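Anyone up for a design puzzle?
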């Protein structure tokens, strides 16, 4: 891009300038995660003297929700003993945590379309923070399952995070932006596996709390983190490059249900929801069971099991962003065909590694395969959301919600089908291998995806839009 073009691209009709290059909708066409250029990177982070409290608003709010949701599995050995939970109780609670986010993610899409990602994100975090604290008061299996369900609702913030990235960044870099934001946020599921056992150890060995009180007191940490990040989003967040969120004029007269229906009738959202259900859904299930798996099968301690599980979640810092970057690179070179084939390849390799994880007999062999598995399954999640912004421009929030809901629905299916504890004849390691087979089968519908303006896996586009309105109509 020459200097004249850059100057034109960085100006709005009212002479407002942006530090980053932008397109006709004022969306950034470059992505610099460590830049301090407002307003685009403010959705990614906020800068000034309170920078450490304002950093990376879109993803850090979601990070807090992941931290809260998976803070429970990290302390499960202590909770299970104190509440006398059976294997079936643990499995049901794990599924409940994902059930809570299925419908909340679907509802979050239209909420973002109507009110903007800033308000929607903060509302969900603030409404679910009391549920995190309520874990401290659980005394029965039923109350434990209920609070896990309520906390799971917070994962709807994933949709607002993705919506925010798509609102700030153009199609040229939206895959990278979405991948980095969701990848860094998902690392919360890894960090909590380290932090929560450490907090528990501190309370029991240093402060000398009783074990039954220590794990309960520990949940003040994720509750406070979620509240603080929500308040930061409200105080310092910005919905769009031009400021406060407003509905697109073409859709101002549409109500919540018409917006929802417009997205639901698009079959591409359903296919991506299924695919995402068995990449991100499998990732969520693995986060839920992996610490307990190493604790039970290989006899490692709670802190060691947490460290191993943390390595799976921490990989998101690099792997999911890498998926978004690969999606953008393949899109620039091969169009939609490149994005779809990359997604299929990554998820297929992840499926093979998942099958292998369940068949490895040694501790260190399992750790190695798990790490390799984490790379590809998390990259597949980033690759999926490299496709989502191209499905529907009219109902972007709904499509994001459908795909995100598919992820948690997949987690529910795998948790109930394979890890519910109701079938004692199927070992956890065999269930992990079966999960890999389901992953592979879920990639096959990707071959059905076709975009008139950009093609599919096996054919090119059938229509080339001649105008912005024509392109907009193709994304119905």
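Challenge accepted. My sequence:
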């Amino acid at each position: 891009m020459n200097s004249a073009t850059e100057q034109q691209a960085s100006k709005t009709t009212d002479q407002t300038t942006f530090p980053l290059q932008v397109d006709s909708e004022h969306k950034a066409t470059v992505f610099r995660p460590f830049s301090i250029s407002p307003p685009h990177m403010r959705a990614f982070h906020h800068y000034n003297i309170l920078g450490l409290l304002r950093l990376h608003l879109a993803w850090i709010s979601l990070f807090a929700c992941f931290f809260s949701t998976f803070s429970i599995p990290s302390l499960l050995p202590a909770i299970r003993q104190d509440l006398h939970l059976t294997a079936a109780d643990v499995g049901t609670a794990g599924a409940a945590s994902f059930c809570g986010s299925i419908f909340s993610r679907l509802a979050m899409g239209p909420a973002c379309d109507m009110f903007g990602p800033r308000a929607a994100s903060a509302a969900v975090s603030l409404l679910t923070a009391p549920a995190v604290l309520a874990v401290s008061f659980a005394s029965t299996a039923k109350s434990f399952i209920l609070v896990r369900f309520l906390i799971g609702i917070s994962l709807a913030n994933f949709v607002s995070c993705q919506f925010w990235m798509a609102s700030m960044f153009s199609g040229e870099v939206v895959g990278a932006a979405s991948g980095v934001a969701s990848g860094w946020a998902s690392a919360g599921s890894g960090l909590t596996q380290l932090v929560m056992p450490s907090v528990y150890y501190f309370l029991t060995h240093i402060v000398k709390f009783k074990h039954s009180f220590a794990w309960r007191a520990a949940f003040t940490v994720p509750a406070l983190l979620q509240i603080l990040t929500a308040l930061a989003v409200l105080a310092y967040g910005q919905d769009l490059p031009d400021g406060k969120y407003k509905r697109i004029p073409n859709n101002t007269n549409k109500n919540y249900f018409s917006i929802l229906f417009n997205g639901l009738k698009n079959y591409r959202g359903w296919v991506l929801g299924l695919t995402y259900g068995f990449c991100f859904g499998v990732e969520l299930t693995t986060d839920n069971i992996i610490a307990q798996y190493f604790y039970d099968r290989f006899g490692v301690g709670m802190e060691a099991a947490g460290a191993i599980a943390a390595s799976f979640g921490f990989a998101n810092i690099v792997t999911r962003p890498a998926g978004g970057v690969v999606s953008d690179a393949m899109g620039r070179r091969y169009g939609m065909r490149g994005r779809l084939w990359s997604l299929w390849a990554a998820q297929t390799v992840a499926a093979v590694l998942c099958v292998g994880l369940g068949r490895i007999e040694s501790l260190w062999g399992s750790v190695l395969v798990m790490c390799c598995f984490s790379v590809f399954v998390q990259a597949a999640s980033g690759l999926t959301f490299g496709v989502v912004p191209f499905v529907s421009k009219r109902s972007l929030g709904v499509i994001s919600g459908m795909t995100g809901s598919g992820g948690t629905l997949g987690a529910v299916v795998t948790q109930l089908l394979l890890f519910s504890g109701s079938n004692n004849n199927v070992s956890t390691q065999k269930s992990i291998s079966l999960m890999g087979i389901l992953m592979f089968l879920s990639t096959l519908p990707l071959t059905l995806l076709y975009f008139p303006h950009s093609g599919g896996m096996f054919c090119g586009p059938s229509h080339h839009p001649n105008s912005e309105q024509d392109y907009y109509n193709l994304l119905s």
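A detail worth pointing out: Residues 261 and 398 are 9 Å apart (CA to CA).
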